[in-house]
Amino acid sequence: MEEVTEQISYRPLRPAISRELREHIEDRREEYEREGMRTEEAEKRAVEAMGDAVSIGTDLNAIHRVQHAPALTALTFVLLMAGFALTAYMQWTPEQEMGGYLYYLIAPLLLLVVTWKGYPFLVRCWRPVMVAVILIYLVQAGMFGVTGFGWSMPGRAGVVYFSILMLAPVLTMIIYRFRKSQKKLVVLFAAVTTLWIGLVTFNIPYRNMTAMVLFLFSICGTICFLFYRKILLWNMRTLMAVSLGCAAMTGAVFVTSSGQRTLLQIFLHPEEAVYSTWDDAYNSVLIQNLLSRTPLTHGLELSPEEQMNYGTGAWYFADKDERQIGLDATNLDTEEKLREFRQKSDALWEEGVLPRYIDYQESNVTLWDMLPQHYHNNYVIATGIFLFGWIPGMALVAVLLLFYVLLFSCILKIRGILASSLAFCCGQCLLWQGVFYLLGNFGHQYGTFPNLPMVSEGRISILFNMFLLGMIFSAYRYDRVMGVMMEGESTAGTGSGNRRKIKYSMIWGHKGIDI
Prior knowledge:
Number of domains: 2
Radius of gyration: 29 Å
Keywords: Membrane, Transmembrane, Transmembrane helix
Transmembrane segments: 71-89, 101-119, 131-153, 159-178, 185-204, 210-228, 240-259, 379-405, 417-440, 460-478
Number of strands: 2
Distance between the termini: 19 Å
């Protein structure tokens, strides 16, 4: 036993391997005894039948070892550094200067900790974890009921946003536990669908609509994956009920109220929803126009006059609504100029127009003055194209696509039921954030901007996204060594002989042992 277990590189698995091999030897010994052998001879024969100890240990270690994803890991840290460098180059805001460096330092540490401990901890303590998660959501629901969606706390918007998105992996865990009970799953889907429609009907805050759409896409994609992997084996009636529920959830997002229909219009046809330079629709139209003028191999080149027209909004509103053009707020060095400026501003406010104040002139206007207010977070890809041209900008997009290809190639290699389900759901959450972020950077924004994982992050989002990515790494890392524990749990209701056979097949992988 010692010679065999010494070959196992993952030390926590050694006791389980040793215990199961001992049980296998005991079964062999009992078989030989039934054939008429004496106990000593039967035990010796059973040990000899196992073969060379070093060879057995080496084979077991090849099957059950901690897995690594060096290419994906390297690309992850490259994207983290790229995000930090791009944001720094695009000028830090005062808020970022206070904590931007710190958040990018914490992110890799959180990723490493979750990768190292996340999935094993979840497997061992899933009941307390689920109870804690449910309590957290109940507390949040209570706070919503008392103070509404905007209760006062630092980072509340990001917390609510990711609380909605993180419902996807939580529901995946619940589906995994209920996967053998169709009635419980139907009740679960009915409850979630009802809650979803209720939230959308009562018009939850605009900033959370994006999170709800990301959640919807993530959980629906995960359910399709569960059917594809045959983790969920339902009859046609149940499948139709789930499909209708998902269709109702989707329809509620897009057609329940005029607010959702407006978001869809801005997403599909932003030029039809522009009313002022403060609109998201205006930002989309502006980005599309600037992208159309950007060369392939070098950055955008505009005269100071053109830059001023873009900065003030005159390029768009000069022949539509001149009231929306920004007010010159420079050279207010006399009482008369200041009084005239205030009169113009007050007149616009009285007409229901939110004025934009321009604090630059042709002599000092820059690219940053032309771009939307949160370009450093929301438009990293588009701004990169403006600065360096289409080819360098699309190279960054290609790197992002490579990241997702490597990510899902690792996820699809995971064999464990819980590990693969949870990893795929976390991957969906990361994927749809990236998809909607890229669409927004090419002039098709839906709701508020999501984050681009690792490249464009905030102090809250980077923590949640590193947790999601860490759980994927952790599930992939421990997939082959946690299988025995999970299979042992799922066979608790079988007989000892059947349980041993299943455990042996888990230990020996596809080779198996003829018992």
